[in-house]
Amino acid sequence: MVRMEGVTPGFDDPLGVLRACHRRIAERLDLLERLPEYVELHGADASAQSAAQRVLNYFDRAAGNHHEDEEADLFPMLRRAKGRQGWDDAVPAALEQLTAEHERLARRWAQIRPSLASLARGEHTATLSTEALVRDYRAHMAVEDELILPVAAHVLDHGQLQRLGVAMQRRRGLSPRDSAGETAE
């Protein structure tokens, strides 16, 4: 299948959707990384407000769906695929680590969300500490991108990938038969 850079895969390629989510998360992390210094120099101007709102929009909605895609569907499928051709014995420990990290990432997000919400409303925030969330998310996604998704591509069969895509669509309120061409957020 030919993939064009910047084109989001559809749910018929659920692993591609997860990778695309990682790209969008990375873009928001880049914003978060630059935002504290920007706010220190320019205050809560329109650019800072817009950046804060983009981060809020993504992490309030799509990031939760992404974590649920993994914990409710992908990770259990991988656990059941243990021993198949392409399996890596590092996967079970990584899945436990990633699940625990989802909880830590949610706590870190809850810590910075109020400051971002204030900033999005144009209120200057004296403390916008994003380093821990940015660092932890990047390390988390690296394990998924370098171990979990490549193993999943080798050990999950077509039927499992199809079920994963359908579950992801339903989580987003889409009907599988009505979502031809729909992309994930």
Short note summarizing the structure:
The protein is mainly α and 185 residues long.
Characterize the structure shown:
The chain has 185 residues and is mainly α. The chain has a single domain (14-173), classed as nmb1532 protein domain like (Four Helix Bundle (Hemerythrin (Met), subunit A), Up-down Bundle). It has 5 helices and no strands. It has helices spanning 14-42, 46-80, 91-120, 131-155, 158-171. Helix 1 (14-42) packs antiparallel against helix 2 and helix 2 (46-80) packs antiparallel against helix 3 (91-120). The chain starts with 13 loop residues before the first helix and ends in a 14-residue tail after the last helix.
Task: List the topology elements.
Elements: H1 14-42, H2 46-80, H3 91-120, H4 131-155, H5 158-171
Helix pairs in contact: 1-2, 1-4, 2-3, 2-5, 3-4
Low-confidence spans: 179-184
Number of domains: 1
Helix segment tally: 5
Main β-sheet description: none
Q: Look up the CATH topology.
A: Four Helix Bundle (Hemerythrin (Met), subunit A)
Secondary-structure element sequence?
Answer: HHHHH
List keywords for this structure.
single chain, 185 residues, disordered C terminus, mainly alpha, Four Helix Bundle (Hemerythrin (Met), subunit A)
